[in-house]
Design a protein that fits this description.
Layout: E1 2-5, H1 16-30, E2 35-38, H2 48-55, E3 59-66, E4 72-80, E5 85-89, H3 91-94, H4 112-123, E6 128-132, H5 143-148, E7 152-154, E8 173-175, E9 187-191, H6 204-208, H7 216-237, H8 253-261, E10 264-266, H9 268-275, H10 278-282, E11 287-295, H11 297-300, H12 304-314, E12 318-326, H13 332-335, E13 340-343, H14 351-354, H15 357-379
Parallel strand pairs: 1-2, 1-11, 5-6, 6-9, 9-10, 11-12, 12-13
Antiparallel strand pairs: 3-4, 4-5, 7-8
């Protein structure tokens, strides 16, 4: 019997791989001859870099970059040397949690630090980038990142426009001559879970701007400035990606990736599952094990465990899920492809006790073992 395991992290308790290895121990205790494969699981958001570093044998690269409002910040990304791949979260360099006083500064906030991370990875020989772009503090259309990579944005007089959203309305020309030549040999895959265009009432400024400090009075002029920038880019590169689904993600960073770096914008869970090669392992699997900290109605709306379930069902694989807690609404997960789910907490306890790493690992291991003892009994594998 082959069992493939891909469990999301139990936040504050077990990482994806720790949860997966505990589940694997449970399967092996019930079925010593089973073939068990553990894969990391994440959805492209917070924690993706850590999950793939651990799950793919990567290296954590720590560096100092320019933060969202110009201050130096310590960021990191994952380097998977065997695949010449860098795994990044834009929030590590330009995330809203990095704002010094916690307040948004949409006119100044820049994505320059993201470009600095990319440049560092290029120096290591990276040619394959996987980047999550959630949690941004910026609304700069990605010009900060692009400037760090050698692109220049000029006004009508040929002078550089500066950085941040305050510069967008002045962009009249785009100079690509000085762009890092190594970029042409790179593949950029962007984890993007929104479909918003660059501009308009459904665009970057109107939809996502308020959480970054954009006031009601700022929306119209800032959106108009973003449109002028988008038009200047389209003229320079000969293609218009302003209406591309996801162009408005991360304050227009999706537009920058698509326009200048020919990036693929893909839902996070699909991108991660493809990157870790989960489908290949599922083609001849009998069972898939997935899960997360809490299984509820939101899980069924497309979170990571359901992504695993959909892929497993494509190959006729039975899907079992294990979670720290399960709500009544989690029944919706059954219709989303999870055949059965189980809470791992095994008795009356406090949340603090249940979330201890060693306790959570033991609960996962023992819960999975008992379920697979039942499987073994039914299939005659005991």
């Amino acid at each position: 019997m082959k069992v493939v395991i891909a469990i999301d992290s139990l936040k504050g308790s077990l990482s994806s791989i720790e949860a997966g290895n505990a589940a694997a121990d449970g399967v092996r205790a019930a079925m010593p001859d089973a073939m068990v494969v553990v894969k990391p699981l994440a959805d492209g958001g917070e924690g993706t870099t850590d999950a793939l570093i651990e799950g793919m044998g990567g290296e954590k690269v720590v560096l100092q970059v320019t933060g969202p409002v110009g201050e130096p910040v310590e960021a990191y990304y994952g380097w998977i040397a065997g695949q010449q791949m860098a795994v990044m979260e834009m929030a590590a360099a330009a995330g809203i949690t990095l704002l010094p006083d916690g307040r948004g500064d949409p006119m100044r906030a820049s994505t320059r630090g993201v470009g600095e991370m990319i440049r560092d990875a290029l120096d290591r020989g990276c040619r394959n980038f996987l980047i999550g772009i959630g949690g941004s503090a910026t609304n700069d259309g990605g010009i900060g990142m692009l400037q760090a990579l050698g692109f220049r944005f000029l006004d009508a007089y040929g002078k550089q426009v500066g950085e941040g959203a305050q510069a967008l309305g002045n962009v009249a020309q785009v100079d690509c001559v000085g762009a890092d030549p190594r970029l042409g040999a790179c593949q950029f895959r962007i984890a993007c879970d929104v479909t918003n265009p660059l501009c308009g009432k459904n665009g970057a400024t109107y939809v996502f701007g308020p959480q970054k400090g954009v006031t009601e009075e700022m929306k119209q002029p800032l959106d108009a400035a973003m449109a002028r920038y988008g038009q200047a880019v389209a003229k320079a590169i000969g293609s218009d990606y302003m209406q591309e689904p996801g162009a408005g993600a991360a304050g227009g960073l999706g537009f920058a990736f698509r326009s200048f770096l020919k990036a693929e914008l893909t839902p996070g869970i699909e991108l991660i599952l493809n990157a870790v090669g989960l489908e290949q392992e599922l083609t001849d699997a009998d069972y898939a094990i997935t899960g997360e900290g809490k299984l509820d109605f939101q899980t069924a709306m497309g979170k990571a465990p359901v992504g695993v379930a959909k892929l497993a069902k494509k190959h006729g694989v039975r899907v079992l899920a294990f979670a720290g807690s399960v709500t009544k609404e989690a029944r919706a997960c059954n219709a989303a492809g999870i055949d059965a789910f189980f809470p791992i907490v095994r008795g009356v306890t406090t949340l603090e006790e249940a979330m201890k790493k060693e306790v959570a690992a033991e609960n996962m291991r023992e819960s999975v073992e008992q379920v697979f003892r039942a499987v073994a009994a039914v299939t005659g594998s005991l």
